[in-house]
Design a protein that fits this description.
This protein is an alpha/beta fold. Helices cover 42% and strands 14% of the residues. It has eleven helices and nine strands. A nine-stranded parallel beta sheet has the order 2-3-4-5-6-7-8-1-9. Strand 3 (97-102), helix 6 and strand 4 form a beta-alpha-beta unit. Helix 3 (36-49) runs parallel beside helix 5 and helix 5 packs across helix 6. It is globular and about 50 Å long.
């Protein structure tokens, strides 16, 4: 029997779907401003499905992203709304942890646009200060280069809470970060900062299966949570993209996804869940299979 931490699934995409609103460059942040109750509903759904971690809807609550629409001074307020929803859902459930999510600066999957690590850490100081005092851990997500990951580690170092570092790999080559750097290039950074876990996220399940042995070699607790996109399209890599430029896979049923994740657990992963387009039904089926295999969900 292995103790498995079961993350939730998609937060941002699930919020957009449930809102029924037209997608905007502010993504799930816009939904949270317009329909704050939906955030709580999503967290409740994942706890009901068996997840033990609620990931806050703060991935894109960053000054540089909000500045595009004149909302840069609302970082603290929006972080409070997001964290409060996750905490309320955890408390209503009667247990679990809250992970404070922080995403890439400027734009997802574009590490070439991100400020250098030292500058990024200074920018990250604001959302980290707003989130860290009320969460159980910081989850820096979708870091796509070694330097992006370094900026995350620098920002989290003074926060006083555990850090889970999640990196994203290429759709077509899961052994490489989206920057093209081999996963092995993270080794000196991880030795220097020793995050509490190293994860692969927001990449196709097939790519994650390729990359998982490489992060297992780092000697840290490890795991993964994949997306359900067909691919990261060129349209989404342009300026101010919306999720309309991405297409959901039709071949990734809850059963199919759970079978893949069980393979990761067999390979030693102890933290698993889902990313964009992986919803509560996927997490419920995964929880069922984890228990059926004799593991404990913690």
């Amino acid at each position: 029997m292995t103790a498995i931490t079961l993350l939730d699934g998609s937060i941002g995409q699930e919020l957009v779907k449930r809102s029924g609103d037209r997608a905007t460059p502010l993504w799930s942040t816009q939904v949270m401003m317009d329909h704050p109750q939906i955030v709580r509903d999503v967290h409740d759904a994942y706890f009901a499905a068996g997840a033990t971690v609620a990931t806050t809807n703060t991935y894109a609550v960053l000054r540089d992203r909000l500045a595009r629409v004149g909302l840069e001074d609302r970082v603290g307020h929006l972080a409070d709304v997001a964290v409060s929803a996750a905490i309320a859902a955890r408390d209503a459930h009667g247990g679990g942890r809250v992970a404070g999510a922080v995403g890439p600066l400027v734009q997802s999957y574009r590490p070439d646009l991100c400020p250098a690590a030292a500058e990024a850490a200074l920018i990250y100081a604001e959302p980290v200060a707003a989130i860290a005092p009320r969460v159980d851990l910081l989850l820096f997500e979708t870091m796509c280069s070694v330097d992006q990951a370094r900026g995350a580690c620098l920002a989290a170092r003074a926060a006083g809470v555990p850090l889970w570092l999640a990196v994203s790999v290429m759709d077509e080559d899961g052994t490489r970060l989206r920057s093209g750097e081999p996963l092995g290039d993270l080794a000196p950074l991880l030795a220097e900062f020793t995050p509490d876990a190293i994860l692969l996220n927001c990449s196709p399940p097939e790519a994650i299966t390729q990359g998982l042995p490489h992060i297992a070699d780092f000697g840290l607790p490890f795991g993964a949570y994949a997306n359900g996109f067909t691919r990261i399209s060129e349209g989404f890599l342009g300026a101010a993209p919306t999720v309309d430029a991405l297409e959901q896979r039709t071949d990734l049923s809850p059963g199919t996804y759970a079978a893949t994740v069980m393979g990761w657990i067999d390979a030693g992963a102890t933290i698993v869940g889902g990313c964009c387009e992986i919803g509560p039904d996927h997490i419920a089926e995964l929880a069922r299979r984890i228990r059926e295999a004799g593991h404990e969900i913690v």
